[in-house]
Amino acid sequence: MPRPIQAIISTQAMAHNLAQVRTRVGEIQEQAKSSNTVKTLAIIKANAYGHGTLNALKGFAEADGLGMIDLEDAVLCRQQRWQKPIILLEGFFHQADVEILQQYRITTAVHSFYQIDYLKQAKLGMSPIDVMVKFNTGMNRLGFLASQAQEVLSLLKALQTKGIVGRIGCMSHFANADLDSRYVNEAAEQVMQLSTSFDGPLSMCNSAASIRYPQFGIHAAENWLRPGICLYGSVPFDTQLEGFTDVTFKPTMTLMADIIAIQTLQVGDSVGYGSTFTADRPMKIAVVACGYADGYPRSAAENTPVTVDGQPARLVGRVSMDMLTIDITHLPHAHIGSKVVLWGEQGPSIDVVADYSNRIGYELMCGLTKRVPVQVI
């Protein structure tokens, strides 16, 4: 029998969260009386943020397309009979990748001239490759400068004439969509001006922008939203605090484990490595079968919240490799086998745990380790 720990992945919550994004943007589109096409690309990079690529295929079955990083994942999705668009967000890296893009009808980002050089060497007579030209609008990671737009477009149109390239769209990525509107507005204006020269879709809005700045997701004749983290129930800002009370995302990953031991402490007794916690009163401490080797952050601070059989409790002492300890003094009915939710449904949100750990929710999702059994619902 495995250790009493498991992660529960909810494909139903994934579908709900996707619908929330569509509803939010749809309301803005209706207010603007816009008839432009708006499609939603569910981002499933990094093994669907730790949730499993195949699970995401089920959860996001109603998405208009998928966005990812790895070509192997794109091929897997095609082999699983996903027929709608797939976009490689970082593009491709090798000449040999081009034929695979053609074979599996995979759209690719193009952010550097070497990728255009690889496209020039593509086999003729195969399916044309749709491309999304990525522009650098302040992130300074990937993308062409605005001043290079016409040169890039000229090169790609020449390949379009040869049948190597299909539609040519454009995209960018906001560096501050969860923070500062000034930078977002400047970046959006720049890309919207550039997009008028392209015959393909425009894609700018990530999770934060899809909620905070959905007007930038309805600008062009055809728009692709790119929600990622919010589809998994984590939002990089406080939706309620910022007034988005009608947007409710559900957690898609719940991490839970059992109490496997209970210790009685007297005043002055300590808990865990380094004796960082010392009892100032008689206490009962529960040992939980979850540690940093499972993906729970070692940096989690004292008082990080959990729930025990639905009741709130707090972390005490350091998180160790295979165990952590919580205060159950106030929970007389807690026992060996009681269920402890570390994050997720009926427990603290993953973002709250991340805050207590000086981390972000993305890291915790992606950091769930292989030894944790997974149940998909």
From TrEMBL:
Alphabetical GO biological process terms: D-alanine biosynthetic process
Active-site residues per Swiss-Prot or TrEMBL entry: K45 (proton acceptor), Y273 (proton acceptor)
A single Gene Ontology CC term: cytosol
Record's keyword annotation contains Isomerase: yes
Single GO MF annotation: alanine racemase activity
InterPro entries: Ala_racemase (IPR000821), Ala_racemase/Decarboxylase_C (IPR009006), Ala_racemase_C (IPR011079), Ala_racemase_N (IPR001608), Ala_racemase_pyridoxalP-BS (IPR020622), PLP-binding_barrel (IPR029066)
Cofactor dependency: pyridoxal 5'-phosphate
Electron transport recorded as keyword: no
Highest taxon listed in the record's lineage: Bacteria
Pathway: Amino-acid biosynthesis; D-alanine biosynthesis; D-alanine from L-alanine: step 1/1
UniProt KW keywords: Isomerase, Pyridoxal phosphate
Residues with PTM N6-(pyridoxal phosphate)lysine: K45
Domain Alanine racemase C-terminal: 252-377
Catalytic activity of the protein: L-alanine = D-alanine
Pfam families in UniProt: Ala_racemase_C, Ala_racemase_N
EC number, UniProt record: 5.1.1.1
Residues where substrate binds: R141, M321
Classification via HAMAP family: Ala_racemase (MF_01201)
Purpose of the protein: Catalyzes the interconversion of L-alanine and D-alanine. May also act on other amino acids.
Protein family per UniProt: Belongs to the alanine racemase family.
Name of this chain's protein: Alanine racemase
Gene encoding the protein: alr
